[in-house]
Amino acid sequence: MNKYYLMKKLFQSMVTIFLVLIINFFLFRVMPGDPLAMIVRNPNASEEAIEKIKVLFGVDQPMYVQFWLYFKQLAQGDLGMSFMAKEPVIQVIGEKLVPTLLLVGLSTIVAIIAGMFIGIVAASKRGKKIDIISLTFSLITYAMPTFWLGIMLVVFFSVTLNLFPTSGMSTAGAVFANSFEKALDVSKHLFLPTLTLALVLIGQFVLIMRNSLLEVLTEDYITTAKAKGFSEKLIIRRHALPNAMLPMVTIIAINIGFMIAGAIQIETVFSWPGLGRLMYEALNNRDYPLLQGIFLIVSVCVVLANLCADIIYGYLDPRINNKA
């Protein structure tokens, strides 16, 4: 890979993260509402107690001092103190990050595999029944509201068939004999949220994969490969698919940020104890330090995902390296 291309992308990512840090500080401070009112819920609290709380959370300082302390704390790995939990933000987020990564990661893997497979089949059978069925399925799932889809799956699988639990990450009060039983219980709770998010993503991936592959199949080098007598499967696998993957790489990277937004709705429907639900609660309570921490982590994940997409692009399409 071209070293200049790689260094350029790394520099752009670092600049983007730096701008995110600045926006992250000011964004939540221009929101309506008084954060102090969320901290001090007792209307009979004394002035002395209020001042102590201000000092504890650093809201007694001028804005420029808070800004300097914000960067100083970040350099030390300190994201501040949560107004709601009265605990370090990094600790609060750490407890919720794993469930969200489990949900989003598994849903993404399922959606990518299923979306690519259906998209490839639909493109290779263009105009036939399987293509029409695939397109109809994709358009319906792509346009379907996440919240509504989650409720419908709960009604069907949990209420009607009684196959899966309706909420939570594990059975409340359950005692497990071993790790396998615990993993099995978590898997049952994970099934419906994963299915919901995966179905929403699959429709988009199918459409992108199908359209991209159809466009590549019209290229001259594909016609040449057909003239040489190569089988259709070999042409798709070796010649068409690598180039058709480029738009998929982009859309997967872009979706990293949007998945958190989708996770808020899904985690609300299924009471999944993840980052999306935590962000919703922090927003309602004007918990600025917690919101800043979540926004920062999500933003860095999006930037890193796009950086990975650019690097993969460079490997899949050497012309990008040459242009750089």
TrEMBL record:
CDD domains on file: TM_PBP2
GO cellular component, one term: plasma membrane
Pfam name, any one: BPD_transp_1
Keyword Cell membrane: yes
Bilayer topology: Multi-pass membrane protein
Membrane-spanning segments: 12-31, 101-123, 135-159, 190-209, 244-270, 290-316
Keywords attached to this entry: Cell membrane, Membrane, Transmembrane, Transmembrane helix, Transport
Record Gene3D superfamilies: MetI-like
GO BP field: transmembrane transport
InterPro entries named in the record: BPD_transp_1_N (IPR045621), MetI-like (IPR000515), MetI-like_sf (IPR035906)
Superkingdom: Bacteria
The ABC transmembrane type-1 domain, residue ranges: 97-313
Family statement: Belongs to the binding-protein-dependent transport system permease family.
Protein name in UniProt: ABC transporter permease
